[in-house]
Amino acid sequence: MKKTNLIISATPSLDELDGASPLESQAEQRPLVFTAAQHGMRLDRALVDLVPEFSRNYLQQLIEAGSVLVNGQAMTKPSHKVKVSDVGVIELRPTPQSQAFKAESMALDVVFADAHVLVINKPAGLVVHPAPGNWSGTLMNGLLGYDAQAFDLPRAGIVHRLDKDTSGLMVVARSRAVMDALVRAIAAREVKRQYLAIGQGAWSGAPQCTVDAAIGRDPANRLRMAAVDLNLHPGKTARTDFALLSNGTQACLVHCTLHTGRTHQIRVHMAQLKHPLLGDALYGGAMGLGISRQALHACRLAFAHPITGQPLSFSAPLPADFLAALSAMGLKYN
Question: Which helix or strand (DSSP H or E) is residue 64 part of?
Fold first, then answer.
């Protein structure tokens, strides 16, 4: 199995990147060969492809510190465009990110698998990708343990994410060509993703509605997202369709269809409707009503197979805690 050969310590400071690091002896010189897949890319983006165990931010720091040579010359601008057949070398220094890029044995609920794609039913509580506070035990680590070929793919083939406490279906690529095809399909909104959500309070509006509200970082709380006015704040357009399935005195069961895939999109849009998800304290949802995490489940995933073109559609049963919350709230799901 392919493994990184770096010994890991703490994240380097900018001073360490300038050459004063006590971990200097642990640095690794790694050759770079840019292929047609990277032709015309910014250098920092190309490095994410070639050195996927490091974050783009860290790779940008290395570039600016003169630690990346292309065709024998130090490149200090992340925006430098690379060409096919360019060659170079990068000096890598240990970070938690590189330690995170390791295989771990994990029981994955694989709904579908062939030579090209995996469909995973992710449980609530599983982090998708390593990040500060979760450098191991993530879905990415499990995918690397499931298939050694995943080491050759950025993010082990992960093309979209679910929040840690959201359960349900995800598609994962098993080759670079398939990964690129799935990313294009998601961007073109050809991958259909549907969710079930339990919102706080009795639904009082029309049984079907669409929220078309841009999402960006909350100006008042940088730890969360918010519906924003793009004339005043940075953000991206976001659209979600909602359909009421069951209504109760304390909560409502809603079917959600994503047309875009913004961070926390359903959570933000449900809060915008004054129905924050049960268990979602970040966006005002009530706790202690039968579920201890946000009541959101990716129940259905549909897309054309990126190689054969065959239509594929998958459903994931409701997890036990979601069913318990429905029962506690007197909601029905058929």
Answer: helix 56-64
d(CA 200, CA 223) in angstroms, rounded, equals: 22
pLDDT at residue 51 in the model: 87
* Strands 251-258, 296-304: pairing kind: unpaired
User: Would you report the helix, strand and coil content of the chain in percent, each value rounded to 5?
Assistant: 25, 30, 50
User: What confidence score (pLDDT) does residue 25 get?
Assistant: 39
Closest CA to 191 of 35, 286, 333, 312: 312
- Beta bridge pairs of residue 224: none
Of 31-45, 86-100, 212-226, 227-241, the poorest mean pLDDT is in 86-100
Contact 303, 187 (CB under 8 A): no
Question: What digits encode the pLDDT tens for the residues 196-208?
Answer: 999 999 998 899 9
Which CA distances in Å does 204 have to 65, 168, 209, 257, 333?
A: 57, 27, 12, 19, 19
- Residues annotated as part of the active site: 163
Residue 213, CA atoms < 13 Å, CB-side half-sphere: 20
The answer to whether the CB of 254 falls within 8 A of the CB of 240 is: no
Alpha-carbon distance of 14 to 12, in angstroms, equals 7
Q: What are phi and psi of 124, to 5 degrees?
A: -65, 145
CB-based contact 191:182 (threshold 8 Å): yes
Rg of the chain on CA atoms, in Å: 22
Residues 6+ apart with CB under 8 A from 43: 63, 68, 70, 75, 77, 78, 79, 80, 81, 82
